[in-house]
Amino acid sequence: MNDLHVGVDIGGTKIQVVAVREGSVIASHRTSTPAAGVRELVGAIAEGIDKVLAGSGAAVADVRGIGVGVPGAVDVAAGTVASANNVPGLEPSEPTPLAELVSRAAGAPVRLENDAHVATLGEWTRGAGRPYRDFLTVWVGTGVGGGLVLDGKLHEGQGAAGEIGHLVIKPGGRVCSDGRRGHLEAYAGRGRMEARARSLLKAGRKTVLFDLMEKKRRTRLTSGVIADALERGDKVAHELVDDAVWALGLAIASVQNLLALQAVVIGGGLGDRLGAPFIERIAAEMQSQLFVPDRPPTILGTEFGDLSGAVGAAVLVGA
Fold first, then answer.
1. Model's pTM, two decimal places?
2. 39-52 pLDDT, tens per residue?
3. Phi and psi of 94, rounded to 5°?
4. DSSP symbol at 307
């Protein structure tokens, strides 16, 4: 029966795939994002789709559609993505026809969208955002993405609305993944946190971050590595997270002052892994920057955790 929807969430360090039937996740698969070319990326996605089909006892013929969320500037109509600076294998400047490539590999129709938008869609329709008509989502992972629901509608603007990670919080500050300076992502995205940690190590600071990466056989700094380093009292890890909290509090408060939102949902690999204490610190950091401090937005975590993006991608194609 042609009643299965598949959602794929592509991140800088992981690919999450889910199979959804009648609104429920019936199978999921997670794998590391290949640190190679687009062929390897598409192969890993196709393998993940095969895994969730096997786990749900389904065949490709049962798939109604595959939704794919990917960081970067997505042309939905063309099925292409550009400026995906945090995903190995995707050219940062040239559009990649990812929808066509995945469709050909998986044997089913594919719809491509920005990862933050589909994760927002998942939490709005199925998760923590359901009670609200005006809210912001902030996805703290390898990079920092965001999504906006305004007056009960997902707001996409000209296609890149919600890119809070590229909001300037410190002119001339640290270098972001896009080469510009002072963006939120330069302080709160794991990719730039790793770059900062490496520069501190080179300058003589001691940290267990890279020992933990090696022990866990990770090629990039992951949320789990950061969390373990925090538990060990690593001063560099604490400094990186302190900077991220400051930057996120400032950026989210600025958005709140502009839009007077009901709520903010914070997730992504790092947001979900560090959980409530991290979110509470961001809320406290925001407070002194709010124009109307006695009416702050509700700050909460995701309902789906790591599955938010993949569930949202499945919703994108009708789940």
1. 0.89
2. 999 999 999 999 99
3. -85, 135
4. G
